[in-house]
Amino acid sequence: MADQFMLATDDETWAVNVPFPSKSITSDFDVATASHPKKIWIDLDNTPHVPFFLPILEALQTRGHEVILTARDSYQVCELLAFHHIDCELVGKHWGRKRLLKVFGTCLRAAQLAPTIMEAKPDISVSHGSRAQFLTSMLLGIPNIFIFDYEFTSGVGFLSFLQHDWVFMPNLIPESLEVRAKRQVMRYPGLKEDVYAWRLKPDPSVKAELGLNGSDLIVTVRPPATEAHYHNHEAEVLLDAALNFLIQQPGIRVVLTPRNERQSAEMRKAWGKWIATGKIVIPERVVDGMNLIWFSDLVISGGGTMNREAAALGVPVYSIFRGRIGAVDQHLAATGRLQLLETVEDVRTKIVLERKKPMYRNGMDESSALQCIVNGIVSIAEHQCLPEHP
Prior knowledge:
Blueprint lengths: L1 E7 L4 E7 L19 E6 L4 H14 L3 E8 L3 H7 L5 E5 L5 H22 L3 E4 L3 H10 L3 E4 L18 E5 L13 E5 L5 H4 L7 H5 L7 E6 L11 H14 L4 E5 L4 H10 L1 H5 L3 E2 L7 H6 L3 E4 L2 H10 L3 E3 L7 H8 L4 E2 L3 H7 L17 H16 L7
Parallel strand pairs: 3-4, 3-6, 4-5, 6-7, 7-8, 8-9, 10-11, 10-13, 11-12, 13-14, 14-15
Antiparallel strand pairs: 1-2
Helix pairs in contact: 1-14, 3-4
């Protein structure tokens, strides 16, 4: 099934058309305007959570529910909150890649969240993998919804012996995967990125901001998450191979998007010569990632979210991620929407440097993934949660 519409920018108009699952997946209850408004706590634990939860937050508020929003000062969360003009309570920070520090940081943040949440008295908590939120919810007796799209981090690490109340995951993850929840495991159609990709309003000013002209072929490169517990050093080898390959090609401009200040400093030191000549551009401030992808000819990324954002928009994308490949990425690779690079030779032989064809994306007024997730959250909050706190 596919929907099509015409998307106009300042300098061109493209037909937009993307396949979307034909099977409709809904929650157990029909949802309209809230008959009993609830307090719903959303925690933004990582960079991708900001664009993912923006339309969810707005939809919940439109339906009459109050959203309590907290965030962790990690990666580019604060910059994205400022970019989207969102105010929320910042609690805790990132503690690096060492496991013991991660455990300590999670427990500390859970304790730091507790006073705010005890005062706010939410009816339910929702996150895309926030361990600290889950721990706080468990300690305070708040029902929780856990959303994930990568099955190899679907647990909660050192809390993996505990179960969430409800779990939400893409229907691309096979049912053979044994995912448990205290109450219910639910599925939504398509990609996590489909929740917000449909909202994109292309703005060519991102090209001017980065000094990109119309003649260059633009390649956006996202380094791997070197501080993540699932990081494999092979991804860094592939990143170096990809950048070395790209800088040797005429008419190519590389937009390199580090994940944090530490990684940015490392990239600027390693590739300073090419940054000075303008061959490689590192944005001086946060930019709208979806707009950047839209105006790129291809994307090379060591991170799952940018890979899937490009796939959702129909931009050619090559993955240098070398952790365990999840079911969603396996599906995208099998259907030709994502190319997996596994060796340095793959970098040289599989990457096609050509001007992109007209891009394709979902042309629906609102994505099925967003509708399904919002309906699920509201249904649970209104019909299955514990009574409101006194």
